[in-house]
Specification:
Layout: H1 16-28, H2 46-50, H3 64-71, E1 78-81, H4 90-97, E2 102-107, H5 110-122, E3 126-131, H6 134-144, E4 150-154, H7 159-163, H8 189-195, H9 198-209, H10 214-223, H11 230-239, H12 254-265, H13 267-281, E5 287-292, H14 295-309, E6 329-331, H15 341-346, E7 354-360
Parallel strand pairs: 1-2, 1-4, 2-3, 4-5
Antiparallel strand pairs: 5-7, 6-7
Helix pairs in contact: 6-13, 9-10, 9-12, 10-11, 13-14
The structure holds S-adenosylmethionine (SAM).
Length: 377
């Protein structure tokens, strides 16, 4: 059930102290991580490492307390977690929803479904899992007439994915070039680096990684084909970075790995399709929250909510409003919320996180005559 007036407006703003602390923590870590947490040693190559038993580290959800506070789940409500992952955000939300509430979990990674079974067995509330990309899951729910009271997005890859070294998300571990969140899709990092034209690879590195050396990295990648492992890719990237540029900007492969991962998983297109669909299914008075980890994600969320929270769109030279446009969103976070320095200290991966949230006021932004005023970003 939708509940008007629930949800809390938070005004704590991006904490630059936290961001600096995060940067410090990240720099303090070794350039190459000490290696995956295996029960046995001897992980020299991907093949050797693959025989070892992987022990997943404890997962700590990012900005979880802030997300729960701002979305304020109430007993008996329905929430949709579009990025279930390891259920780190779903758990505290489900506790608030109680036995009468429902949590619908979505994720395209089968490992998330395994985690959801454990979550479901604990039985904090009614629940179901949709193994799907955002958009088809949201379209299916719209078809069923489901109107959630809360919707959560926590974009990017999960700790579970990055720590599963054999999936190739991390530049710190030797692994096949994979990076697929959905292992059933055919596009992988190997296809991009070995088959895409040089100019297309350069564009990916530039647009999704804001990588200054995109052109020379793409040239080096193409020159070294075929590339088989993450180490081959790291070597190509390092070879394209002049020694003077290798210091002070973190690991030289960080941005390129982010860029290729975004391209493999079509992450930005998925967000662009998901936000308007999610807003459509959200109940009136429902709350939607999104956690982003880089500006390409956050910019989309910020624009989307701002567009819906905007009233009059008359040109400034018109003294009296003639458009009559009413906003259909109220911002619950005036500015993006960032993790506290304590959270960044505990979980350096949270350093770049931003949370934005809004409450839905009506089913459509309207002009004064009740006609649709558009309003989808
Ligand atoms: C940052 S993790 C979420 C972690 C989760 N909130 C937690 O605390 O355990 C993002 C998750 O969203 C999933 N994901 C990313 N893009 C997706 C998409 N377009 N459709 C469905 N799932 C997606 C990933 O597979 C990953 O498990």
């Amino acid at each position: 059930m939708a509940r008007r007036g629930s949800g809390t407006r938070l005004t704590r703003t991006v904490d630059t102290g936290a961001r600096k602390a995060g940067a410090r923590s990240a720099r303090a870590r070794p350039a190459v991580a000490p290696g995956p947490p295996f029960r046995a040693s001897g992980a020299g190559t991907a093949a050797a490492a693959a025989k070892l038993e992987y022990v997943p580290p404890d997962h700590e959800p990012v900005l979880a307390a802030e997300l729960v506070e701002v979305l304020d789940p109430q007993p008996g409500e329905t929430f949709l977690d579009c990025t279930f992952g390891a259920g780190g955000h779903a758990r505290p939300i489900a506790e608030r929803l109680g036995a009468e509430g429902e949590l619908i979990a979505v994720d395209r990674d089968p490992e998330a479904e395994r985690r959801w079974r454990e979550f479901s067995a604990a039985g904090p509330c009614r629940t179901r899992f949709l193994r799907s990309d955002f958009a088809p899951a949201l379209e299916g729910l719209r078809g069923e007439g489901v109107r959630p009271d809360g919707i959560v997005f926590d974009f990017g890859m999960s700790s579970m994915q990055v720590d599963a070294w054999e999936r190739g998300f991390s530049y710190a571990y030797e692994a096949p070039l994979d990076m697929r969140m959905d292992p059933d899709q055919s596009l992988s990092a190997a296809v991009i680096v070995n088959e895409w034209p040089q100019e297309r690879i350069a564009r990916v590195l530039r647009e999704f990684g804001e990588e200054r050396r995109a052109g020379s990295m793409a040239r080096e990648i193409v020159r070294r084909r075929p590339l088989a492992t993450t180490s081959d890719l790291v070597a190509a990237i390092k070879a394209a970075v002049p020694p003077a540029d290798r210091f002070g900007r973190g690991h030289p492969a960080k941005r390129a790995f982010q860029a290729i991962r975004i391209a493999v998983n079509g992450e930005l297109e998925a967000i662009d399709r998901a936000l308007p669909l999610a807003w459509t299914v959200l109940a009136i008075a429902g709350r939607m929250g999104a956690i982003s980890f880089h500006s390409l994600e956050d910019r989309r969320v910020k624009r989307f909510f701002a567009e819906h929270a905007r009233g009059c769109v008359c040109p400034p030279e018109i003294p009296v409003c003639v458009c009559g446009r009413e906003p259909d969103a109220e911002l619950l976070t005036k500015r993006a919320l960032a993790p506290t320095p304590d959270e960044v200290e505990r979980n350096p991966r949270s350093a770049s996180a931003h949370l934005r949230a809004a409450r839905k006021l009506s089913d459509q932004a309207t002009n004064g005559n009740g006609h649709s005023g558009g309003g989808q970003a």
